[in-house]
Design brief:
The chain has 444 residues and is of the alpha/beta class. It has helices at 18-33, 57-76, 86-90, 92-98, 114-126, 174-178, 186-198, 221-229, 249-257, 274-280, 286-299, 318-331, 348-352, 359-382; strands at residues 9-14, 37-38, 47-52, 80-85, 104-106, 133-135, 156-160, 162-163, 182-183, 203-207, 215-216, 219-220, 236-240, 264-266, 304-311, 335-340, 388-397, 400-408, 413-417, 428-436, 440-443.
């Protein structure tokens, strides 16, 4: 460490997916082991870290906005600035040229090196010169075995069971920022689940870029999630995300059979057009997707299905878009994340296709699809009126501190008055649904 007697204070901001949330917990753990402390107050921080996402343009813009703010801060006082994660990995040249204030760049496989990188940058700063510290090599083996995450609290614990992706969808930068697939040892995952349960966490969410691909010896993902669900003290187990191209029957059987595996599947569609799916490299057709949905609904009638959809991919015609709308109407998702396509550097699509759909057309298609899904989602939620559902209490409602917010087994938000009975986050409670909106259910 440097000559400073008290611990250096680190502030970390996380952008993007659940995997990034989980990675930030690993970073906190690794830095605390080396004597760093953390603060929520940016003004007190000696080190500012941004754990970044490379998937969406909006996430990029937010990171660049924050870096612009830190430019002024760094002129006023000593500050080490670090960019971590997928943007650091995929845009290292751009970041180092456009944002000279960055002292540390670390990719998703380099977090074990962060204590050393930050310490070197702090020492250089104290000696009056700038020293850039970069660690951006991808690993075929790093799964952070043995690093217990430093979690924020709440009722849910993220556990990453595998890292990387071998699918190479043409629009996606993940294989280039997180490397090839590798799975954690099952006993390591189970030990982490047991540790989370001992700390009072009631729900586990298992993470992977494609959990269908989990393999460790004779363990597949169905066996792993069932074993996690058997952990004493854990009430619910979720997972994200699977890929529709190779959805294993044993996983559907596990979801249907185990009472603690949640009846919710996030099943990314991306497009309902076979032509666009082929350009995306998704390896399934619209008919394949529909057959899988029928199989899921046949085995798990009360399943809640959610999805991701991209509007305006290269060469997408109005006919292609209408095919997506028809499949959305047919499937009747409970909710969907709808995005306008934004080209990512270094992807197959960026190399092979032109991003040729005008932004206003992309925006108009997003708006139409969101409106369609709002109608469907509102109708799906109305189906719960009068039913009594098991709800896991999570926290106070964001806009109403006199109300509780919890989630159903299917991951649908439920809101009700606190005054009804004494409850605490982490408790399971049965609530009778009396009203609904597109986004939530309301209960007695």
């Amino acid at each position: 460490m440097t000559n400073k007697t008290s611990p250096h204070l680190v502030h970390i901001e996380t952008f993007g997916c659940q995997m990034n949330e989980s990675d930030s917990e690993l970073v906190r753990s690794l830095l605390k082991q080396d004597g760093f402390a953390f603060t929520e107050d940016r003004e007190r921080a000696d080190v500012m870290l941004m754990n970044t996402c490379a998937i969406r343009e909006n996430a990029h813009n937010k990171v660049y906005g924050h870096l612009g703010e830190l430019q002024a801060v760094k002129k006023e006082r000593p500050l080490v600035v670090g960019v971590l994660g997928c943007m650091a990995q995929s845009l290292k040249d751009e970041l180092t040229k456009k944002v000279p204030l960055i002292d540390v760049l670390a990719g998703p496989d380099a977090y074990r090196q962060l204590p050393m990188l930050i310490t070197n940058a702090l020492q250089a700063q104290e000696q009056g010169f700038a020293k850039k510290a970069f660690a951006l090599d991808l690993s075929e083996y790093e799964t952070y075995e043995g690093v217990l995450p430093d979690r924020d609290g709440g009722v849910n614990a993220w556990i990453t069971v595998m890292r990387g992706c071998d699918n190479f969808c043409s629009f996606c930068v993940v294989p280039y920022t997180r490397g090839r697939e590798r799975s954690r040892e099952p006993q390591s995952v189970l030990a982490e689940a047991q540790q989370a349960a001992s700390l009072g966490y009631k729900q586990i969410t298992l993470l992977g870029q494609n959990v269908n691909s989990y393999r460790s010896g004779d363990w597949d993902f169905a066996r792993l999630i069932s074993a996690v669900a058997d952990t004493p003290g854990i009430e619910r187990v979720r997972f994200t995300s699977p890929h529709p191209k190779d959805y294993p029957l044993p996983l559907l059987t596990a979801i249907a059979a185990h009472p603690k595996i949640c009846k919710h599947i996030h099943l990314p569609l991306q497009s309902g057009s076979d032509r666009i799916l082929d350009l995306m490299g998704r390896e399934y057709t619209a008919a394949d997707y529909s057959r899988l949905v029928d199989q899921i609904k046949g085995m798990i009638p009360d399943i809640v299905l959610t999805t991701d959809i991209i509007c305006g991919f290269s060469t997408e015609t109005e006919q292609d878009f209408e095919s997506t709308c028809r499949l959305v109407e047919q499937t009747r998702f409970h909710s969907a994340f709808v995005f306008a396509y934004s080209e990512r550097k270094n992807t197959i699509a960026a190399r092979k296709f032109e991003d040729d759909i005008p932004e206003d057309v992309k925006g108009e298609r997003v708006k139409r699809l969101v409106e369609l899904q709002r109608e469907i989602g509102g109708a799906r939620n109305r189906e719960y009126l009068g039913q009594t559902l098991s709800v896991l209490v999570e926290r106070e409602a964001t806009r109403s501190p006199d109300k509780w917010m919890g989630k159903t087994d299917g991951n649908i938000a439920v809101i009700w008055d606190k005054s009804l009975e004494p409850l605490q986050p982490g408790m399971l409670t049965n609530r009778r649904i009396t009203d609904s909106s597109v986004a939530a259910l309301f209960a007695e």
